[in-house]
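Hi F.,

I've been meaning to write this up properly since the lab meeting, where we talked about keeping a consistent format for the predictions we share between groups. The idea is simple: the sequence comes first, exactly as it goes in, then the structure tokens exactly as they come out, then a line or two of notes. No screenshots and no reformatting. I'm using this chain as the first example so we have something concrete to point to.
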Amino acid sequence: MSVKIMALEAENVKRIKAVALTPSPTGLTIVGGNNNQGKTSVLDALAWALGGDRFRPDAAPRDGAVAPAHLKVKLSNGVVVERKGKNASLTVTDPTGRRSGQQLLNAFVEPLALDLPRFMEATDKEKADILLRIIGIGTELHTRDMEIKALYDKRTFTGQLAAQKKHFAEELISYPEAPDEPVSASDLIRQQQDILARNGENQRLRAQYAELERQEQQCVDELKRTRERIAELEQLYQELDAKHTKLFNQRETARKTVAQLQDESTAELEASIRDIEETNRKVRANLEKSRAEDEAAQYADEYSRLTEAISQKRADRMALLNGADLPLPGLGVEDGALTYKGKHWRDMSGSDQLRVAAAIVRRLNPDCGFVLLDKLEQMDMSTLQEFSAWLEVEGLQAIATRVSTGSECQIIIEDGMVKDADTALPPITEKPQQKSWTKGAF
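Output, unedited:
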């Protein structure tokens, strides 16, 4: 069982004149009162009694007090803690009656339980580090966080490159009419020479045809002249007729050949040769744009891959936290900061902040079953009841102060004393035989 505070008796500590307090063993015990009446002094007295000199108030003795400060705290494990005398010497008595000191208290008293504002005012990272230390996954979670950060930084850089490459590709000019590859001037000239050679052969055949046509005409003319002498030149006629027949056949063959001939134009090649530099400039521009678009697409794919990797790492990290033994369901660590139900500390309600702080401090030392809370006036009545119910379920004791004199306060402090106390506290003397502890008195 965790240790609870069973009773406090205090005299002449800060604003306290004489106070006896018996808190509820679980749930919330509220010490109320107006300002400057000694409420916070009650918590300071408890912290000093249980936490030692590190919690000693700067001005521990009450102003104007004749007797020195005196504290006595009874704990649920039977230990009795007392500070008395001019030097507020500490005496710790265990259930067997043996005397001990602060070392015994340190075993079951968590310092943050005595000074909860120290936890609540810590940085987000300090709170997260405390939680991770408690659940024992700090190193592994830090490794996951570093892996996620590395992937995130790489993805950010990749995204920037992808955007730059895409913008660069969009700015480049393209020429849809240009060929896919650069044009070779030597290939164009060779094609031109081949066409000129074929055209030359065509010209030779045309000249041959013209010559044959001329010779045939010459024969026709000679035939006309020889018809007048046909009788005398019959033999010659026959020879010329045969020759004509032969030439006619040759001419027909040549005519058919020539009729099938078609000259090829070199104008397009000549234009291509003239425009080769411009054409190749466009081809190079198209190739550069295509490369830029490919690079942009590759970086976009890499960005998507890194996004998936980050999502997987975050899922692994969440699984690690979900599998941990957390002090309070809903606690987590995001980007090195403590969260509760998805909210960072600054976004939590005051009651949630207290609940988180109490749960974590409880887990720091499970043997310590109490916390001290100051200034609960920010909580409304329903929130106070909800917080008290949670404390009872957790078996946790909280002693708190609140600027109020309402019914929610179990004890009202007025001018350093418990209001309407049944028993007046006599002054403490230095003679041990004259001292005896009774409820609400020294």
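Notes:
The longest strand covers residues 5-11.
Residues 5-109+365-434 form a domain with the Rossmann fold fold (CATH 3.40.50.300).

If this format works for you, I'll send the rest the same way.

G.
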